[in-house]
Design goal:
Number of helices: 13
Number of strands: 2
Oligomer: single chain
Radius of gyration: 19 Å
Largest sheet: 2 strands, antiparallel
Structural class: mainly alpha
Helix content: 40-55%
Distance between the termini: 36 Å
Order of helices and strands: HHHHHHHEHHEHHHH
Shape: globular
Amino acid sequence: MAPIVALFLSSVLIFSVFSPVNSLSYNYYEKTCPHAESIIAYAVKTATSKDKTVPAALLRLHFHDCFIRGCDASVLLKSKGSNKAEKDGPPNLSLHALYVIDSAKKDLETWCPGVVSCADIVALAARDAVALSGGPSWDVPKGRKDGRTSKASETIKLPAPNFTISQLQQSFSQRGLSLDDLVALSGGHTIGFSHCSSFQQRIQNFNATHDIDPSINPSFAAKLRGVCPKKGKSKNAGTTMDPSSTTFDNTYYKLVLKKKGLFSSDQALLSNPKTKNLVRKFATSTEAFSKAFVKSMIKMSSLTGGQEIRKDCRVVN
């Protein structure tokens, strides 16, 4: 436990430079809501038993929340009047399983009203999602506050599936995250599903010289072309992020090494010597990947910026 605590404390120092850091702690709800984590875990487990896509959705929700204004549950807020919220920004239209957070919040409000933030529920649900999928578990520092601002226009700041390595590096470094964090957190792509729109440009009309992106395995590209009709034909067409899409493992890195990464941003990890070495390391060791993933998740989830504890996760108090 000591190394993780030390890591967390050092991350607080990093983040305090550019974001207001609430004091997070591992035993934050020990006295005020001792059953908080088990209530959230139950909501995640119940939903997953009915829908195997829930864990990937919850992990993605947490990433998308933290990358805009820190981990403040601003991604959950509904649009109101002329204000279009993050949830309705283009990259977030495919987010789902938000009802799992609502379900956990409802139960928590019964047991300990006004105590547990929606931001903490999202962070804990992401951890539970990974553990339920066969990945590692870890202690999540708690005490985040919920944000009061949510703007769809800010979702343009989310890393895009067609980002180059330099764009990815810039996006992560703006949030105090390193190249090591980038490679470890990209491993979250081991679970989930992607619509064709996120990788279509790689397999059809790539550029003036190539119809298909040269960085993609030709047989893999042919398979994807079979899945994805020409642009605009089917909104729901797509494919799993990797063949074991409900199992959290290191398959993602093995695929990237074979030029079978789904997104340009996945394949871009091979275009930098440091990130390429990390991809190789994680492809050969599940243990090394799990350890790095946990470290980077704690670091990312410690980006804070909220002001209140919402009663309802979809609206400010």
